[in-house]
Amino acid sequence: MFVCAHILSLSPLPSHIQSVRGKDVFVIQTMSKDVNTTIMEMLIMVYACRTSCAKSITGVLPYFPYSKQCKMRKRGSIVSKLVASMMCKAGLTHLITMDLHQKEIQGFFNIPVDNLRASPFLLQYIQEEIPDYRNAVIVAKSPASAKRAQSFAERLRLGIAVIHGEAQDAESDQVDGRHSPPTVKTTGAIHPSMEIPLLIPKEKPPITVVGDVGGRIAIIVDDIIDDVDSFVAAAETLKERGAYKIFVMATHGLLSSEAPRFIEESAIDEVVVTNTIPHELQKLQCPKIKTVDISMILSEAIRRIHNGESMSYLFRNIGVDD
Question: Can you give the residue range of the structural domain that contains 219?
Answer without folding.
Answer: 119-166+207-293
